[in-house]
């Protein structure tokens, strides 16, 4: 929304650094929590946004991101997080060769007949999982393994008569899918396949006009999660007054461009208010 | 928040609610501080274990505490326990996480902890020479399929439960036949033709029946080698479509 300074920069960076888990060499969700790859990416994203990457020990983080968590969860979300984090840290080259092949192969094995991707091998296609897989493949320059037409069709079928998007066939609409679906569609250059006006209207109707914020659907309690993904969706739809969002990294496009990391994608033209 | 309706409350009602929550929050924070400081001091005692149970019951998203709980078991309690005792701890965690799952069916950490329990069930009660050395394992894995079916009865689209189902089926000591899994998906689809999760599971099972494993790309069902199987599937889908032409799944 172009208000980066609404939160105090130093205070935020200090909080992020207080979540550092020195034993593991990565970030936890809160001071004294175990390091996790999730919160490590969030920390890196905040530090990149505020141009403060010099605060972290990059080689240690790379080592930890590479190792995964100690109780061994597997999920394509973690594949994306690792690829994204390495890319933001300028360390994607550590995957060169066999590790990159292995990563791409795993994602390919999570691909289903409908063109979508699941969280693990055998899992049902899910829009959130489609985003992480497509974005990881975009960062790795391996979009050749995506069946773009089939997946584009599956993604545009996520739009329901009320304009909102769901995450799987025969499920209810939810504002957060505006981002998961649209991000993947913009990487595939298929956003024109959905009705943008109807979707914009749906996202706007889920706002709390008195207290501010956006909910999962009209009339529900707002939260930061849905507000973030609602605004992200509106940005990709060219809503007036918002800054451009990079759908691959889910960060402001100018931040990604400044680091020379922009991949091919196409959002709708920004409209005038 | 997912599915929580927004209600406008008066200033007075909001104050009263805040006051009520304040006591709860204070209790939670005191418990959290206690557990976190025990963890820092490497406390691997029974007391610490009990406190993690209480904290995880209030906040099952607190992954650090799940990790701590497993560390207490692995480094503090199991080395001084008999296999019977270990099996009891594991069984207790399997039942308490079942209760937790009913309240929070989409919390990844609870599902993960169950996997850990199953994978850490000790050998016994028999030995290599007498009785069944895998008796406890078999009991736990068999029960697990029942648990996951319960969870899918409550929410037939819960993808955590479906993923977990595939994991249980692949890990069971005595494998179920693919045909019995097809029968399960048939029942789910008959109950609701719009259950795409069951259709998806069926696509995976059908593919593995149509092709010998490791032979062909699993996704290429259409070029199958068993035309009869494929024909019967297509005519079954046609029948369902005649009944409910609007379904997006079939």
TrEMBL record, chain A:
Q: What is its EC number?
A: 2.5.1.60
Top enzyme class, one word, equals: transferase
- Give me the comment on cofactor binding: Binds 1 zinc ion per subunit.
Q: Could you tell me which CDD domains the record lists for this protein? A: GGTase-II
Where would I find the Prenyltransferase alpha-alpha toroid domain in this sequence?
Answer: 4-251
GO cellular component, alphabetical, reads: Rab-protein geranylgeranyltransferase complex
The record's InterPro entries line, in alphabetical order, gives: PGGT1B-like, Prenyltrans, Ptb1, Terpenoid_cyclase/PrenylTrfase
The job of this chain, per UniProt, is described as: Catalyzes the transfer of a geranylgeranyl moiety from geranylgeranyl diphosphate to both cysteines of proteins with the C-terminal sequence -XXCC, -XCXC and -CCXX.
Its quaternary structure?
Heterodimer of an alpha and a beta subunit.
- Recorded protein name is Geranylgeranyl transferase type-2 subunit beta
Q: Which organism is it from?
A: Asterophora parasitica
From TrEMBL, chain B:
Family annotation (InterPro entries) = Prenyl_trans_a
Gene3D superfamilies xref list = Protein prenylyltransferase
Which GO biological process entries does UniProt record here?
Answer: prenylation
**Catalytic activity, EC:** 2.5.1.60
Reaction(s) catalysed by this chain, per the record, are: geranylgeranyl diphosphate + L-cysteinyl-[protein] = S-geranylgeranyl-L-cysteinyl-[protein] + diphosphate
- MF annotations from Gene Ontology: Rab geranylgeranyltransferase activity
Record flagged with keyword 4Fe-4S: no
Q: Which SUPFAM superfamilies match?
A: Protein prenylyltransferase
Q: Which PROSITE patterns match?
A: PFTA
GO CC annotation: Rab-protein geranylgeranyltransferase complex
Tell me any Pfam family this protein matches: PPTA
> What keywords were assigned to this record?
Prenyltransferase, Repeat, Transferase
* Described purpose of this protein according to its UniProt entry: Catalyzes the transfer of a geranyl-geranyl moiety from geranyl-geranyl pyrophosphate to cysteines occuring in specific C-terminal amino acid sequences.
Can you tell me which family this protein belongs to?
A: Belongs to the protein prenyltransferase subunit alpha family.
Recorded hits in PANTHER family, A to Z, give: GERANYLGERANYL TRANSFERASE TYPE-2 SUBUNIT ALPHA, PROTEIN FARNESYLTRANSFERASE ALPHA SUBUNIT/RAB GERANYLGERANYL TRANSFERASE ALPHA SUBUNIT
According to UniProt, the name of this protein is Geranylgeranyl transferase type-2 subunit alpha
Organism of this sequence: Asterophora parasitica
């Amino acid at each position: 929304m172009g208000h980066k300074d609404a939160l105090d920069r130093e205070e935020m960076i200090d909080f992020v650094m207080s979540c550092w888990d020195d034993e593991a060499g990565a970030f936890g969700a809160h001071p004294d929590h175990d390091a996790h790859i999730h919160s490590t990416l969030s920390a890196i994203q905040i530090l990149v946004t505020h141009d403060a990457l010099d605060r972290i020990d990059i080689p240690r983080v790379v080592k930890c991101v590479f190792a995964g968590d100690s109780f061994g969860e597997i999920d394509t979300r973690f594949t994306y997080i690792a690829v994204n984090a390495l890319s933001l840290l300028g360390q994607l080259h550590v995957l060169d060769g066999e590790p990159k092949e292995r990563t791409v192969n795993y994602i390919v094995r999570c691909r289903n007949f409908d063109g979508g991707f699941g969280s693990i091998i055998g899992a049902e296609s899910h829009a959130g999982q489609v985003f992480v897989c497509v974005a990881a493949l975009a960062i790795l320059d391996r979009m050749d393994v995506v069946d773009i037409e089939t997946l584009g069709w599956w993604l545009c079928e996520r739009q329901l008569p009320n304009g909102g998007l769901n995450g799987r066939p025969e499920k209810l609409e939810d504002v957060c899918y505006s981002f998961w679906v649209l991000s993947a569609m913009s990487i595939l250059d298929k956003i024109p396949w959905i009705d943008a006006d109807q979707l914009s209207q749906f996202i706007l109707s889920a706002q709390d006009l008195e207290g501010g914020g956006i909910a999962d659907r009209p009339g529900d309690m707002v939260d930061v999660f849905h507000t973030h993904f609602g605004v992200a969706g509106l940005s990709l739809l060219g809503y007036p007054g918002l800054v451009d969002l990079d759908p691959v990294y889910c960060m402001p496009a100018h931040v990604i461009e400044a680091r020379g990391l922009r991949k091919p994608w196409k959002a709708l033209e920004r409209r005038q208010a | 928040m997912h599915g929580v309706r927004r209600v406008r409350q008066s200033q007075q009602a909001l104050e009263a609610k805040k006051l009520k929550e304040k006591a709860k929050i204070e209790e939670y924070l005191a418990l959290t501080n206690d557990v976190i400081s025990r963890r820092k001091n490497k406390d691997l005692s029974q007391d610490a274990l009990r406190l993690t149970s209480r904290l995880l019951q209030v906040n099952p998203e607190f992954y650090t505490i799940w990790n701590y709980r497993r560390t207490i078991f692995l480094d503090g309690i199991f080395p001084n326990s008999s296999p019977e005792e270990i099996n009891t701890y594991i069984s207790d965690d399997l039942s308490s996480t079942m209760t937790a799952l009913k309240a929070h069916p989409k919390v990844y950490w609870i599902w993960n902890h169950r996997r850990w329990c199953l994978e850490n069930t000790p050998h016994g009660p028999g030995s290599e020479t007498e009785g069944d050395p895998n008796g406890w394992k078999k009991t736990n894995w068999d029960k697990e399929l029942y648990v996951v079916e319960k969870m899918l009865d409550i929410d037939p689209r819960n993808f955590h439960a479906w993923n977990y189902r595939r994991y249980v089926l692949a890990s069971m000591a005595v494998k179920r036949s693919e045909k019995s899994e097809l029968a399960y998906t048939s029942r789910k689809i008959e109950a609701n033709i719009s259950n795409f999760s069951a259709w998806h599971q069926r696509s995976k099972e059908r593919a593995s029946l149509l092709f010998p494993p490791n032979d062909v790309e699993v996704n290429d069902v259409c070029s199958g080698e068993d035309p009869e199987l494929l024909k019967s599937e297509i005519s079954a889908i046609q029948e369902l479509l005649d009944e409910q032409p609007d379904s997006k799944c079939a």
